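Run histidine kinase through structure prediction, thanks.
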Amino acid sequence: MANIVIIDDESGVREILSDTLAFYGHRVTQASGGEEGLEAVRRERPDLVFLDLRMPGMDGFRVLEALRKEEATQGIPVIVLTALNDRAQMVEGFRRGANDYITKPFNRDELLARVDAQLRVQRLERVIRESEARYRALFERSADPMVLLDETGLVVQANDAAVSLVGSGPQRLLGMRLIEVLNPDDRDEFEAAVLGAFEGSQIPIFETRLVLIEGRPLPVDVDLHPIEVEGRRHLLLHLRDIRWRRSAHVWSEMILRYIGDAVFITEGRGIILLASRSAAELTGYPRDELMGLDIARLHPPEAVRQWQEILPSLVEGEPRVYEGLLRQRDGRMICVEWAIALFFVDGENYLIGVARDLTERKQLEEQLRQAQKMQAVGQLAGGIAHDFNNLLQVVLGYCELLLVNLPQGERMRGQVEEIRKAGDKAASLTRQLLAFSRRQVLQPEVLDLNEVVLNMEQALRRLLGERIDLVTILRPGLERVKADPVQIEQVILNLTVNARDAMPEGGRLTVETEDVALDEAYAREHPSVRPGPHVMLAVADTGAGMDAEALSHLFEPFFTTKEQGRGTGLGLATVYGIVTQSGGSISVESEPGEGSTFRVYLPRFEEEVQAVPSEAALFRLPRGSETILLVDDEDAVRTLVCQMLQLCGYTVLEASGGEEALQVSERYEGPIHLMVTDVMMPEMNGREVAER
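Sure, done. The structure for histidine kinase is below.
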């Protein structure tokens, strides 16, 4: 979808253009004159502008000139609107900066093709600009010193790292021959390598010596890369400080002392001279890439400030320990404990930094806090539910006594029944609170979760509706668990309702079972879980998903992301209570826009399977004598439903489609009290049958 501004003094043209573009998903802003249109473009910063050239007041030519003069709008493509015989206008429009034109009256297909072409060109230009900016930034911000030489050997460009390495301002490098800052003994070899690289020879990385501004030699590795800049041949030089090679025995001794953690040794300005293997593993950089890298690259901005505040206070032999963030190669931040110390070798100061990953410790601390919070909330909820149940028992008991003594038709009887209904709802809430607090009485049986899911499948499909597909992935020969079958059904039902509400526009719900083995690592993350064989029940949806803030409160009672009036906030709290009371655990994975997956893990149990009562056995079937019109194009379904209704005493009229249903209703002389119809049928759907 593109953002488009239309500037035309003719309202009819504007409306036709606007309706056409809006129909194909574009966002359109209209302007009836030049000045109004110019303000709209400045305000909206659109992807494309349609501009009529002939307008009273400020005409299209002046608008074009204004757009092309302003930096913020000069890159926006403009399609001018012109008459068929107005070729001079069209040429002048191109001269003033138009990108394309379309003649009035316009053809819809031509209009859309020109719009698509301009938007495609704009996207390509944006990609090119971003690519150029990205490569320029890579050169300028690279931690590796880089220098660009022309064919005469002059330095035409040097990044900050190269300037810092040489130890002077850029004026010392730019415009001079690089050999002038080399050790005289190394210049012939360097010139031969540069000449060979320009002639196309493959030059291996070689060592040379820079002469720093104070006259001290600095050994570096040089890597030559021929490149073309603005049609001319250049050489890109990568320089790497290799002083660490000259004092390897010192570094080796320091690394061996701290071998268990990530160790970095830097020179005084923060350039990494040596890094341990564990440092490479912690940061994600290969060891050879860490060498020569500014250690500030491993710190986000706030951590760089923290590092810079600590450095001046360092005293040799007195390490400083603090917690901070470390940025890994892929951009992720991890919490580490730093121990840094200052030391001197041959009169020069160096830093040694030892970093210890605190990620696992922080996760365990957060899990402990969350478990303690849930325990405290559960105790509070259980206590409230217990006391409230006692009060409800009195209220509901007296309601029953009153109803026994009040005859049918008595005015007060209806009021007492309303009180009882409200009490029953309150009792339902307290039962959910008791489930969350793990104080309900369970009746565990040895179960096959596959059988539980299959027995509930039809009920779940009805609950989800026709816009949500239900997919079951059940592992054959699934191991058994010991749990209360009614409560496990409640878990599946609550998770299904939660998933349904997350997919108001439809989607897919997947219920999966699997045998799994939970290891020690998972058990450490979930203190209530014992490692070993478990059976997994997963419920995954393709809904809206949740952010980290919602996930942190997900199983707390009365927490809900739904609008007011839709849910009590106890559904997932009940699931959490049932699962944990059953000896299991529950985890959830979710991202905004990516759906959610809940995984319930129950310990495996080795016994014979107990049959779970089917859904039909849980309800008492109603009876009646009325006439029902049954409409369904599936013969097997229609026959089954017909038999069930007839078993309950109803008279059933059958029809295999909409037309037959209309004919049956016309022929039948008695009253038809109810119609039961399938929604999706060929030729005439259920809604159409009902309306006719």
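Residues 620-691 form a domain with the Rossmann fold fold (CATH 3.40.50.2300).
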